[in-house]
TrEMBL record:
Keyword terms: Membrane, Transmembrane, Transmembrane helix
Phylogenetic lineage: Bacteria, Bacillati, Mycoplasmatota, Mollicutes, Candidatus Pelethenecus
Ranges annotated as spanning the membrane: 12-29, 35-53, 60-78, 84-107, 114-132, 168-184
Protein name: DUF2238 domain-containing protein
Species assigned in the record: Candidatus Pelethenecus faecipullorum
Length: 193
């Protein structure tokens, strides 16, 4: 029988701490947060599933924990989305890096040639960005939220589509930055041989 190591659960324990902190802070701040607590629960269950049943490197669990912490705790509780003008863009760039890294790990050894691998990872990150924007649209439609900043865009005289396109473009930048990192890493390995 395979032994489970405690350090494998560190991302989960940290995520539980973040969820607890978020819940306590939400209890003290008058906001309608039932949807956020539900998201945290789903994220927690997803993390447990990934750690127990899918043999993935721990870095990806940390990616998820950091993304939830940045989006829910800092972005929503501490209002970083409104306080720091580039917060949403930073999260989308991070998402582009994260999804490219994850699919690089999944595709390693299965796609030969750096150019083809880069194209596949880039297109997957674009698909992930599009799905993310569909999720934001769904949250806006189903829960009367404004994750796509429609009201803010109209107030600033911009098209509401601008936020969606900006988010997708920034996700592309995150993906391209991972591909740049990967290219440099692969070149160093090739030069050492």
């Amino acid at each position: 029988m395979k032994k489970l190591h405690v350090d494998r659960f560190l991302p989960f324990l940290f995520f539980l701490f973040v969820c607890l902190l978020t819940t306590v802070l939400y209890a003290t701040i008058p906001l309608d947060v039932s949807w956020i607590l539900l998201l945290e629960l789903y994220g927690c269950l997803l993390l447990v599933f990934l750690m127990l049943f899918v043999p993935i490197p721990k870095i990806f669990s940390w990616y998820v924990v950091i993304h939830f912490g940045m989006a829910l705790c800092l972005g929503t509780i501490f209002n970083f989305y409104n306080r720091i003008f580039f917060w949403d863009l930073l999260l989308h760039a991070y998402f582009g890096w994260m999804i490219s890294h994850f699919f690089y790990w999944l595709c390693r050894g299965k796609i030969s040639g750096f150019f083809l691998l880069a194209v596949v990872l880039f297109l997957i990150s674009l698909g992930g960005a599009a799905l993310w924007e569909c999720m934001e649209y769904g949250m806006d439609t189903l829960f009367s939220m404004d994750t796509q900043k429609i009201a803010e865009s109209i107030a600033n005289g911009k098209s509401p589509v601008a936020d969606t396109m900006e988010d997708i473009l920034i996700t592309m930048v995150g993906s391209l930055s991972f591909l740049g990192y990967l290219f440099i890493k692969e070149r160093r390995i090739a030069l050492k041989k």
